[in-house]
Model the fold of this input.
Amino acid sequence: MGQGLSCGTNHEQGLFRAVQLGEFETVEAVLEREPALLHHTTVYDRHSALHIAAANGQIKILSMLLDRSVRPDVLNRQKQTPLMLAAMHGKISCVKRLLEAGANILMFDSLHGRTCLHYAAYYGHDDCLEAILSAAQSSTVAASWGFVRFVNIRDGRGATPLHLAARQRRPECVHILLDKGALVCASTGGYGFPGSTPLHLAARGGSLDCIRELLAWGADRLQRDASGRIPYMVALKHKHGACAALLNPSSAEPLVWPSPLKFISELNQEAKALLEQALMEANKEREKNILKGTVYSLPSPSNSDVGLEDSISEVSDTELCCICFEQVCTIEVQDCGHQMCAQCTLALCCHNKPNPNTACLTPPVCPFCRSTIGRLAVAKMKNYDDTDHDIGDFSSSKLRKSRKSRNFSEGSSSFKGLSSAVGTFGKMGGRSSGRIAAENEWVDKT
Done:
């Protein structure tokens, strides 16, 4: 009997070693000889062959095991699934294959009470995070549990995936979660310091990029944790000077992405990316003013960067926005077809500070025809053969001149009304985008 046990153990260890090293033929031969080994686990951690394949990214072996009717949600000693381990180690191909096999994204482990979404956010694997969120949107989870509820799912200590991503300095994951509906001001239970928001945790971790993302999505700099501390005080305590400067309540308020507005959620990805880039650039100008003259001053653009910017402005000066007369028209208001630059669009849509009343904001109106802005898209232009081109194509000088004439004529009749509405709005542009916040205070008053 002892000899039989020894042989069985050797074969078992040989299987697990072969799975870890990706030796497909060896794994297949061992399982053909002893099919029962398919359901064996390691002695201490109770890892199955599927766990080992998922953690090591052995997609070919993982697919073979799933094809042999291995359950995708088999548990180890800590009740972790193969999907959790694949998300933890960033093995995106294994994550996708397990999701295709029907792996349950709502399972919690017994170690921290976390799901696969928590693991992807904590370890900063944004591709795995996207795959899991995509699966949640297209599965019964969205119908039964609710997609936004899943995005804000809490672990055993009351931390959402956004809390974990902010604490671990994962700005890409922070952005994805906020874009999918994560609550930017949610407080923790026992994770970190009780009552901490994602902004508190980002301040503790010292991540400027995470702080930028959170502030741009409306994080409240004055929200206090259970001990009465605001994020500014947390950053000071942990000696993150640059973070403290941005979080100082006396510093200028950042521009905030207008997520409560319905038409924002309907933006196509190209238009959204343009607006988000413009917003982040405007807030970086604000940061330069805040940090100017301190040891945390942001570096100035290199000479090559300045030259590139000048050349772009020179090339595109015939495609100017009819509001600021400085930037290229990159955004088009659908239905009416009027166009403007991303910076001017932001001035119509963004507000300067977190405001609980923003959930009731009405959509802004087009500054040219005063019709409600229902949808935005990337601006397109046509050549004489009626072929669509992106806004960056400036190959035809005749087309640029005709486009300029059309834009100026469209804007001339309504520009006076726009000027009276926004004051010194015409001075806003790429090189002066730091003034957007000051010139846009009228939005908060509406």
